């Protein structure tokens, strides 16, 4: 028998990682413990609750200015556009998605590409807001992601070869998938995109081993949910109990409400927490009523998709404020009582704190400076509308309705870009934007696969010198602790660490680090293109790393009106950057 030294064994393991050979797969324990495990990232949100907080301290507020690139990887080709994914890391291999439904496996030590998968997309895809993708899910030996033609694809982690492929919805009707899937208790959970096309939103669970459908839950009132056994559909109740309670006529049949950002899982309550998008069409005068469950937060039973509770942020939404923004679980003390809360910064400009056990409203407050569409929130968290700022109904002769000015703009006080929560400061770090819009209603009718808006708009910056604002918000008081202004809109995610750091990027191309307690900028690096991805940090071989995708795109240059003019000269890109603090060079003996 040949004996190998510990050094040789270590080198052998490293070589396996470098070459992309088989290493251990991701377990459910890995996912459940992701928030506290620092040598891997195996859940979107760096923990099932989505706090985007790391307990690492090797890189901190005293030495972050020494952070330097360790390597950079190009996604290559002409498929640039927006890069919004969060990297995932396991056993020295990093997995990312890129624009146009691509997946890459990269050696996390060197940046060498191990494999690449390119989905074969049809010509007729209809993504409303760029050809982006936000990341993969990992389980066992599988890397699973959604595509712009509304499929789920499972790849083998070592080769990138397709293990199974499943059609979730009809892309010809406007459906797509852009969110990272979620792995919970033996189930793969996904939402869908397509609210601008009059789709019916739905959240579904699949068997991650083979793609078999387990349950489906429509997110618009009146549609039947199903569970599946042995391939047979079993009725699981109508969403909302019945049709037409909060929708007029047949509009619930094309009601939108797409849960396009995905969701998180709270193990303390055993609930899935998802947000839903805008009702369709945008013209609110066509659909009198609250229009459940559009522009809402939903809590679902992960076993069968039952809706346990809901909270609607913008009933009868007339401004495309959606309700998809992430609902982040956190606990805090109120006297001697621990509150199981969840927080969300809505596109409508209000920050909400809910009791995540039952969805009850605890408090809400503005997190942007200018809100015109509502005068505030009542004691139940329902908006007090300013009807002068709701766009007018079209005339009977078909002329457009009265144009009004509304703030925030429909791209939101905060859009998809995820905020972070610090377990040390108790603050949320919110990437927000100050802008408004002229908006008006138009006549429209549903046609499969066509835009179903019934509205027009022009987005305008509120200030001459800035749009983006990174804010530190106290969820217990509603107070802003600090802010950092940015000329262009902020469109990327935020990361907080126990090292008293907050990381985020901007469209100007900089990845930046701030002091978590006072907002002082401590470090920045220009990546060459706009940063609209989600930074992450992890440790490997005794060192702490920070990674982020760079590549300008997304909704702003497509829908931004006057704001799009401000950012029109920003370069597209596709680079994965990884940073660390260099080790001191040993001094040779003289």
From TrEMBL:
Cofactor: Ca(2+); pyrroloquinoline quinone
Domain Pyrrolo-quinoline quinone repeat, residue spans: 43-362, 468-536
GO molecular function: calcium ion binding; heme binding; oxidoreductase activity, acting on CH-OH group of donors; pyrroloquinoline quinone binding
EC identifiers of the protein: 1.1.2.-
GO cellular component: membrane; outer membrane-bounded periplasmic space
Binding site for Ca(2+): 196, 278, 320
PROSITE patterns linked: BACTERIAL_PQQ_2 (PS00364)
Record protein name field: PQQ-dependent dehydrogenase, methanol/ethanol family
Organism: Halopseudomonas pelagia
